Every structure is written in C-alpha cells, then in structure tokens.
Amino acid sequence: MKNNFIQRAITGALFVVILVGCILYSPLSFGILFTIISALSVHEFAHLVNKSGEVGINRTITALGGAYLFLALMGFCTSAIDARVFLPYLGLLLYLMITELYLKKKNPIGNWAYSTLSQLYVALPFALLNVLAFQNSPETSSVTYNPILPLSIFVFIWLSDTGAYCVGSLIGKHRLFERISPKKSWEGSIGGAVFSIASSFVFARFFPFMSMWQWAGLAVIVVIFGTWGDLTESLMKRQLGIKDSGNILPGHGGMLDRFDSALMAIPAAVVYLYILTMI
C-alpha cells in the first residue's frame, strides 16, 4: 500500500510538472505534448473497444487521425495554413469508411461507429485546446499564444477532483450517480466545485483579461462538464468490464483515466468562451 502511494505520488507529480511546463514554455512544446497525448489517447480508446471482441477498429490509423487533427487545428488557429489543411483528415475518415467494404469483418457498422467515436469523443476535444490557446488580435491582425486558458481548464479539473475526494471522504453521504460511480457523492462534488471556483478568483486577480465572474463561470462550466466526462468514461469502463483504461501511468491507469474529465470540459469551455464574445 505504501509503495503504491509513493508510486502514485511520483507519477502524479511528474505528470503535473510535464503538463504545466509544456503548456507554459512555448507553443511548440504545447503542440508536441498534446499531439502525443492525442495519439496515445485515441490508440488506447481503440485498444479498449477492440478488447470487447465486438468490433475491430484500426488503432494505428485512428491514432494518426487524432494526432493530425490536433496539428491541423493548431495550424489553422495560428493562421499558418488555411482550411485546406483539413482535407487529408477528411480523406482519412473516408478511408476508414471505405476499407470496411473490403475487410469482411463481422461488424462493419460497429467499426464505423467506434472509429468515428474515437475522433469525436477523444481527438476533437484535445484539438479544441488550440482554440483556447491561440487568439486573434484584431488590433494587430496577429495571433498570440495564451497558455493561461488551456492551463486553467486542467487546474480547475485537478482542484475539483482533489476537493471532491477530500470533502467526499469526510462528509459524503448522498450518492451522485450510484449506478455508474458508487463512490462519488453530492457533498464531494459541491466541495470540489468550491475549490475550483475559489481558484478562479486567483486567476482573475493575476490574469484580468476576463472579469472575476467570467472566470468563475468558466470554473463552474469545467466542473459540471468535467464531472459528466468522468462519469462517461466510468460508464464505458463499466460496460467493458475493466478497472483502468490502461497502465501507461503507473498508479494512475491510462491516458483516458487522466483526461476523462477534460474530454467534455474542453468543448464546453470553448462554447462558453464563444458565448462571452457574442454578448
């Protein structure tokens, strides 16, 4: 038990240092890190659904698709290239559809569905981090890299998870979603939300490009959709009959286990921030 705790602590600390460091260091390190994370996460998802024996999707092609989508959207958001950058990605999606005509697998519709889901559920949210990280400046007609927005998403998720665990362990009595995740409680979820919202005031103090209430609104959105993201992955693992999505992170499971909340929180944050610009 003690060795497992130490392993979890070391892995968790390295994970946070690498993630925070690469986001803050430069656009290049940000791009390299999340291109790798996108590919690994999609590959892990494909491996999981293939283990069920009901479908058989191409892990390599779908993983390459996830990596390419991230890079394509990064290029588009930085104005390095126009929308034609997405044409090869569309070609890849067509390839995944057409090859099922010739492979003679037992469940082609399932293969199509899960191949598409690997891109929609896993690859697209990571790619949308670019929308948060790169902003066009109307005054200078240039694109600036703002690492604080993508970083804040992960900080809100981490503090929500930590707060939910601490508060839930102490006073958690009312189950949040017992059918899917018996250990989660309403008390823990509310406690986690308080932690995240409190940190949003710190972001507002040091990064006032959004108001305090806009930062708080972002934290609330991340907490709500992050919880749904966590439950979604729990539902998937429950249906597949597995405890962890993988073992790439010793003591912490797989990539999907670490980023399950972000897979819904990131798209929701993008929608929220776009709504703010329209008001």
Structure description:
The protein is mostly helical. It folds into 2 domains: 1-144, no CATH class; 145-278, no CATH class. The chain contains 11 helices and 4 strands. Strands 1-2 form a two-stranded antiparallel sheet. It has a two-stranded antiparallel ribbon with strand order 3-4. A hairpin with a 4-residue loop joins strand 1 (134-137) and strand 2. The longest helix has 29 residues, at 212-240. It is globular, with a radius of gyration of 19 Å. It starts with a helix and ends with a helix. The relative contact order is 0.12. The mean pLDDT is 90. One of its GO terms (molecular function) is phosphatidate cytidylyltransferase activity. It is found in: Cell membrane. Pathway: Phospholipid metabolism; CDP-diacylglycerol biosynthesis; CDP-diacylglycerol from sn-glycerol 3-phosphate: step 3/3; Lipid metabolism.
